[in-house]
Amino acid sequence: MPDGTRIIPPPIAMLAELTHRCPLSCPYCSNPLDLAQRESELSAEEWSEIFRQAAALGVLQVHLSGGEPASRRDLEVIVAAARGAGLYANLITSGIGLTADRIAALVTAGVDHVQLSVQGTTPATADRVGGYRGGFARKMAAAEALAAAGVALTLNAVMHRHNLGELPEVFDLAERLGARRVEVACVQFQGWALENRAVLQPTREQVEEAKRLVAEARAQRRGRLVIDFVPPDYYADLPKACMGGWGSTGLNIAPDGSVLPCHAAQTIPGMRFANVKDTPLEEIWYRGPAFAAFRGTDWMPEPCRSCDRREVDFGGCRCQALAVLGDASAPDPVCRRTPGRARLDLLLAAEGNGPGLEAARWRRIGG
Ligand code: SF4
Ligand code: SF4
Hints:
Layout: E1 13-17, H1 44-57, E2 61-65, H2 75-84, E3 88-93, H3 100-109, E4 113-118, H4 123-130, H5 135-148, E5 153-159, H6 167-176, E6 181-186, H7 192-195, H8 197-200, H9 204-220, E7 226-230, E8 250-253, E9 259-260, H10 281-287, H11 289-293, H12 318-325, H13 341-351
Parallel strand pairs: 1-2, 1-8, 2-3, 3-4, 4-5, 5-6, 6-7
Antiparallel strand pairs: 8-9
Helix pairs in contact: 1-2, 2-3
């Protein structure tokens, strides 16, 4: 480890956003509004070099994501490069584009695990939310092909006001598809999801009912299905440690090679991001200004600075502070120990019964 960096641990995980292209157009997508064009995407050779540097830095697992990673014809080459660098390769996919032949090629390339996302549990909901007719049927076909190929599968579902009622069916679907784990995350308001916050915001009653259903399902399905549930931040009283603490456990590589402390960090005004095409990953992680900006506790204002939770939640999410309070260096507005919470409560009162899905702005490259 280089001099002067002894107290900074190496990253464990890396999110590799291979592309922003995606056949779906979910209004809850966390990708930025200004989506990367195909021409700016890193090549498979460049990804291969990034994986080599990441492994040398200490990264153990890479999450291959997007957009839809299968939109890249060279996905199999990229997976093989990740495995060749010694990384655990987890593919996060909508399933669209994953034919049986493609899955066989990914297995040959060494993919370790697949997370398949669903936008709902019926064609009516899933295709509407994803903005892609026939998408649900193609996902189910991909899930069957993954099961036939013996690939370890987790089902992912992003929940919001318009599909939280389908929660028990999500658990049923996961078991039917042979998934051993289901990850149910209430929408995080970043990127396109922030743009559609009033449309997607669940009600407090929905959130309480969801917690009850999760507890019930965990008891009933113990030993068959592991259920990870991420409740919505806004209805909590204290924030989570976003990314486990800024610049402490993971990093994101955007499709063009920009290296980000979290995938929404590009929304923070004035923050500049080094690019792995011209700066070594180790240099960016240990000395990059974007990573140093909110690392640890030195940057904190009061009341975080003198709070007993400052090394538990590290002041929460910077992008959430920016989105709600207009200031990325403020304490997370979720925190009831801070004055910013009043603004969040007003916002929840205003958005708890917002417009229908037809008012959403669907995610598209070019706006
Ligand atoms: S959230 Fe939807 S639109 Fe965004 S990358 Fe995933 S599948 Fe595509
Ligand atoms: S005051 Fe700051 S450190 Fe303390 S709980 Fe709230 S956000 Fe976390």
